Amino acid sequence: MKVHKNSVPAKDRIMASVFDQTAVGICITDRNRRFVLVNDAYCRIYGYTREELIGQPFTVVVPEENHEAANALHDTFIAGSPEIPLEWTVQRKGGARITVVTTAALLRDVDGECYKITTVTDVTELRTAQRLVNRFGRIMDRSYDEIYVFSADDYRFLQVNQAASSNTGYTEPELLQMTPM
Question: Which residues in the chain land under pLDDT 70?
Fold first, then answer.
């Protein structure tokens, strides 16, 4: 949405800058399920240029098996149904799949035409980290060996497993107040 400074009022230039410079992906789609506007962050998330997206069906970033559900959700939202934040598996240009969280708002222009504005946050790395933390937690819980996790700053225990508590005779809360030194 790059605009020439002298052709647009200051408040509109500010809004265009906010739209372009925010770290959250934003797209606006019309009643016909086509991209009307996308910001730079949206393009970075999906790997497309604006020119490749504007005018295209928004499902270009949705895996084919989810097209029907995404279209139905879009249509009911445009018709006035509320939409809650959702987590989706989507696809980047080239087919790589990522996980995003989306939120939506309904926009109505001065002529009464409805548009859907969607914000998109890539949470792929966060979900991967959460799976690793969960896996580590299951390993800790199931281990017969004592496992201690402590802070490098003050050497206080941050986490201990049941085996550590059983073998030392201290409860987990008691151990979390101690240091290994």
Answer: 1-8, 181
The length of the chain in residues reads 181
- pTM, rounded to two decimals: 0.69
| Cα dihedral value 98, 125, 35, 9, nearest 10 | -170
Residues forming beta bridges with residue 88, ordered by sequence position: 100
First to last CA, the chain: 59
Structure tokens that stand for 78 in this block: 């445009």
Strand-pairing partners, residue 44, are: none
* Residue showing tokens 């009464």: 112
* 32: nearest Cα among 57, 67, 13, 8: 57
| Residue pLDDT, tens place only, 2-55 | 545 556 677 777 777 777 778 899 999 999 999 999 999 999 999 999 999 999
What pLDDT does residue 48 have?
97
CA distance 35 to 37: 6
| Residues 141, 143: Cα–Cα separation, whole Å | 6
Torsion sign, CA atoms 32, 47, 49, 115: positive
Alpha-carbon distance of 62 to 90, in angstroms, equals 5
Q: Dig out the tokens for 45 from the structure.
A: 């998330």
